[in-house]
Amino acid sequence: MKFIIKLFPEITIKSQSVRLRFIKILTGNIRNVLKHYDETLAVVRHWDNIEVRAKDENQRLAIRDALTRIPGIHHILEVEDVPFTDMHDIFEKALVQYRDQLEGKTFCVRVKRRGKHDFSSIDVERYVGGGLNQHIESARVKLTNRK
């Protein structure tokens, strides 16, 4: 299980030295709070986020709840790392994951990539969004104000 923690905006506007110190303090606070849930927990600092990885899936809700009570955290993103081979593979995995949630609703696909790929983020948005729209009869694409 993996969480990506976005920093509180007050931290991001600080100078480099102050920002690094605050991120180090926040990382220490996260380790102190979460060590009770999982001894093998990994907390990794990055410039714009903090990554938390734990092995015990049974503690997912408890860890997420504990993270919400730590000052300095703006957003908590729960992430599932899924390997892929091409855009069609991404579409198939998205269809399995979101088919039931999109029935009778409007949706919009947004993609952020890391690394080097043969396709752009916009290419994936169009391919996956078009595929979901074709395979889910009651769902409609709405690029603004989705509901």
TrEMBL record:
<protein>
    <submittedName>
        <fullName>Thiamine biosynthesis protein ThiI</fullName>
        <ecNumber>2.8.1.4</ecNumber>
    </submittedName>
</protein>
<dbReference type="InterPro" id="IPR050102">
    <property type="entry name" value="tRNA_sulfurtransferase_ThiI"/>
</dbReference>
<dbReference type="InterPro" id="IPR049962">
    <property type="entry name" value="THUMP_ThiI"/>
</dbReference>
<keyword id="KW-0808">Transferase</keyword>
<dbReference type="GO" id="GO:0002937">
    <property type="term" value="P:tRNA 4-thiouridine biosynthesis"/>
</dbReference>
<dbReference type="GO" id="GO:0005829">
    <property type="term" value="C:cytosol"/>
</dbReference>
<keyword id="KW-0694">RNA-binding</keyword>
<dbReference type="InterPro" id="IPR004114">
    <property type="entry name" value="THUMP_dom"/>
</dbReference>
<dbReference type="InterPro" id="IPR054173">
    <property type="entry name" value="ThiI_fer"/>
</dbReference>
<dbReference type="Pfam" id="PF22025">
    <property type="entry name" value="ThiI_fer"/>
</dbReference>
<dbReference type="GO" id="GO:0052837">
    <property type="term" value="P:thiazole biosynthetic process"/>
</dbReference>
<feature type="domain" description="THUMP">
    <location>
        <begin position="61"/>
        <end position="147"/>
    </location>
</feature>
<dbReference type="GO" id="GO:0003723">
    <property type="term" value="F:RNA binding"/>
</dbReference>
<dbReference type="GO" id="GO:0140741">
    <property type="term" value="F:tRNA-uracil-4 sulfurtransferase activity"/>
</dbReference>
<dbReference type="Pfam" id="PF02926">
    <property type="entry name" value="THUMP"/>
</dbReference>
